[in-house]
Design a protein that fits this description.
The protein has four helices and six strands. It is flat. Strands 1, 2, 3, 4, 5 and 6 form a six-stranded mixed β-sheet that branches. It is an alpha/beta fold. The relative contact order is 0.16. The N and C termini lie far apart (60 Å). Strand 2 and strand 3 form a beta hairpin. The longest helix is centred in the last third of the chain and has 16 residues.
Length: 171
């Protein structure tokens, strides 16, 4: 544990330099897979209090601060066993996002861009490892946006999302 803390607190070590090789290594373990379910989710890293860093941003609760981690986990659809993390991204919300109309922000500035970003990161990591599996991306209700469905159709990506709202289909 002490060695891990020294590594994490070393200013010369950038998080990206640790994540990219780990994702590449795990993606290689999926070579030969025919089909994969890729579960996407976001978790909060709450640093409120004595562990709070200067670059911490707001989380869901009124006073909590920290970072967000969106990660993607490849799962064998037959056995339902988790196999490998194939993408992850850590970011911090700006403090000004606590106020304002989120819907008025351009699409590129909204947090919902994370779904597209992670789909492409998974696709890129698996392609680099020569994994040619059919990918089905699974989102929770947060991923239930019209933009995600349009994106999936445009890029020929398979997605499943838990519905947050009712959708009507024109007849």
């Amino acid at each position: 544990v002490v060695g891990a803390h020294r590594l994490w607190n070393n200013a010369r070590v950038k998080p990206e330099s640790l994540v990219e090789p780990m994702i590449a290594h795990q993606a290689k373990m999926l070579t030969g897979a025919l089909s994969l379910v890729v579960a996407h989710d976001t978790m909060e890293i709450d640093l409120t209090g004595r562990y709070q860093t200067e670059d911490s941003g707001p989380l869901r609760s009124a006073h909590a601060c920290g970072h967000l981690l969106h990660w993607s986990l490849a799962i064998d659809p037959t056995t339902r066993r988790p196999l490998a993390a194939v993408a992850c991204n850590v970011w911090t919300r700006p403090m000004e996002t606590r106020k304002g109309n989120h819907a008025s922000r351009p699409l590129e500035e909204r947090e919902s861009i994370k779904w597209k970003r992670e789909i492409e990161a998974c696709t890129k990591a698996l392609a680099a490892a020569a994994v040619d599996a059919v990918l089905t991306h699974v989102f929770d209700r947060e991923g239930d946006t019209h933009d995600n469905f349009l994106y999936a159709i445009d890029k020929c990506r398979r997605i499943i999302t838990r519905a947050q709202q009712e959708h009507s289909i024109a007849e």
